[in-house]
Amino acid sequence: MIRRWIKLLKENTLLRSGVIFFVSTMLVNVGNYIFQTQMGRFLTKESYGELGALMSIFYLFSVFGGTLQNAVVRYVATYKAENNMARLQNVWRYLMRLMFGLGVVVFVLNIGASGWIADYLKISNRLPLLFLDFMFVIMFAASLNRAVLQGLQRFLALSINLVIEVVVKLGVGLALVFWGWSLNGAVAGVIVGGGVAFIATLIPLQFLRSTGTRQEVRITRHHVEFSAHVFLITLCLTALYNFDLLLVKHYFTPELAGDYTTLSYLGRIIFFATGVIAMVVYPMVSERRAQRQAHRHLLIQSFLLVGVASTFGVLFYFLFPTLVIDLFYSEKYFTVAPYLGWVALVMGVYSLINLLVMYLMGIHRFQFLPVLVAGTFAEVVLIVLFHDTLMQVLWSLLGVMIFILLGSIAAVYLTRRAAPSLS
Q: Is the N or the C terminus of the chain less surrounded, counting Cβ atoms within 10 Å?
């Protein structure tokens, strides 16, 4: 049996890459959840709600880096297929300068808007928000380097880098919280972890810094259009599981906002456990498209994997909610047990949406974009209109997710009819 699995791993590139990335992602997720759960244990519900809101702001601003990452992965995969490393080297140099400049601009803008953000989210102490701003200076550059690693399908190096970040964040964050820094210590851990991880990305990419023939990097209309599509997609995907946290923080009491933060992070276990599959499929599909090879079988395999794993997770959350809460947090959050299964269902559907979107983006088909944008707007409108209880918020999220999932499936079907030769 063991020999059979080893042989299968050697022969199946998707499975081998997925296993490497899955193991590392699990380690990262375990570290992140130790970080989150320990913060939930040692911070008050009110402070934990503030931490959740601050991290949602960080994720929304990271859309710029996510856009860069998704766009660069596609082009790096194309350069890899063409064996054009010189072109990759010049593009990387150009984008690295651009990303540092963008980081400084976002840092300055966020400093200016910190007062309004703190007032809207009912955050009394602005210092953690100001701390978080420093992360933007290096965040986009780090996203660029990770995108290059992913596009080159160097999943082992990327996996090690992700583990380094979470280990440093966990160690520094917990140490500072124990020393009495409270919320400030948690945010400082995030900053230090990100900084160390960025420096670590430079090691496997040393060949990009070597002196070579410098070529002019031209940004074509095609690059701009594709990047604009990717930006809008990444913004919507990120907003779908972060806008609700910000709106709950605004409309509900600080204690209920802390409860909802716990629910949200427990639900994200479903997504993070399966999202690695989409990250592996995306560069593979991009490379196969560039080489005009069949790629639909990758979608079918990955969709089944994500669907089965999500189903088991949702059932477990519905059947054993208090066990899950006690495992990751503590009994003080048992009051959210009735909502836990529904949160898992929302994130299970979201996991399928994410996979379909990554596939469609990899083959450069964007017919699903109007549905994704409409669903994102609908989420905000529904929560603004219906926020008397947390259950109303969850029903709004579930309705939106199902709507987007059906639209994404329809987009894949239309793509199949348009290009049957590559099915």
A: N
